[in-house]
Amino acid sequence: MKFPLMRNNILREDLDAVIEHLKQDDPILTHGANVRAFEAEWSEWLGVKYSVFVNSGASANLLTMAILKIRYPEGGEVITPPLAWVSDVASVLQNGFTPVFADIDPTTLAMDPAQILSKITDKTRAVFLTHVQGFDGLTDELIDELQRRNIPLIEDVCESHGATHNGKRVGSIGWISNFSYYYAHHMSTIEGGMVCTNDPDVYQQVRMLRSHGMVRESNDENVRAAYIAEYPELNPDFIFAYPAYNTRNTEIGGIMGRSQLKRLDQIVKRRTENLIRFLDQIDSSKYRTDFKLEGSSNYAFNLILKEPDDALVERLMQKMRESGVEFRRGSAGGGNQIRQPYLKGIVPTGHHLEFPETEHVHFYGFYIGNFPDLKNEEVDELCAIINSV
Ligand SMILES: Cc1ncc(COP(=O)(O)O)c(C=O)c1O
């Protein structure tokens, strides 16, 4: 592929940092000092008190919904995006909640705040908002209204590291936030994810949920002491507070994360410059260019037709294939999640049609790789290929 979705996301310097670690006699490879250091450095960068490093963004979603389940064992509704990744919906279902979908705002691709507010009922337990493709999906009105109604905001920032809202990094605004470090994302620990929060109770619970629900994984002495006192007949090393998971990462991931974090701000800057160059050049009579750019930290170039045009889509795909342009149709996660087989029988038949903005992206939207290694001349060439269709 001449224009892949990602190139050189893991650099020599990241690998060298791993090799340095491996040169030690008997190096620790399971999670240890580097994981703890990465969590602390990430918290500092993001502007939150606590972060827990896990093995994927999907695991971050899963543990976050497991936290919600601890608060609401009886279940309830979670307002969920139809345009996101499968794990944003799967984690809701896996924890016994009902996903209630809200259509997207075409300028951010995140759920439209007005749609979110219109879906709130007395059963709403949380709004699980994904910042899609690097755009800031928040508005002040949404934040204020959720606060007023006492509804927790959970942010999925897996595609939007470094995006900001009013100068504050997204992922530091809601109750809990999730990140992914999979290969094509802003930074990569091979596989990896993070759960972030300012809530000390959530922090202790996520630490336990990450490691089999084990109480000794809490780093709060009072939490451990309370369980030990309540269960004197149990070996303190083996008290399982929750029926949970093993979603730990490793020292290798921690070392790579620490190495990559050093250049994350630079990565965000370069991705944004590329996006602006791309939007300045693509044909704005055919493609949407009116995205909300303020605070954005682009994940990938979004090429979304202004109007439905099946013939143009076919020509565009053919041209991109023959020109070596890798692309994903439907933007984030393959388009409208509500169309997916795993939701059959869970949502009413034909429910996907009630989300026209998401449906438009499903059929007439694409994403194309944007990454720091992409040169200006390549962005220009890419735009020329697209505009030639
Ligand atoms: C919005 C969103 N959430 C969650 C995930 C899952 O992350 P991972 O691939 O690390 O499991 C992704 C993955 O791309 C994503 O885009």
Automatic annotation (TrEMBL):
Domain of life assignment: Bacteria
GO MF, one example: pyridoxal phosphate binding
This protein's UniProt keywords: Pyridoxal phosphate
UniProt KW Ion transport keyword: no
InterPro entries on file: DegT/StrS_aminotransferase, PyrdxlP-dep_Trfase, PyrdxlP-dep_Trfase_major, PyrdxlP-dep_Trfase_small
GO BP terms: polysaccharide biosynthetic process
Family: Belongs to the DegT/DnrJ/EryC1 family.
Name listed for the protein in its UniProt record: CDP-6-deoxy-D-xylo-4-hexulose-3-dehydrase
Organism lineage string: Bacteria, Pseudomonadati, Pseudomonadota, Gammaproteobacteria, Methylococcales
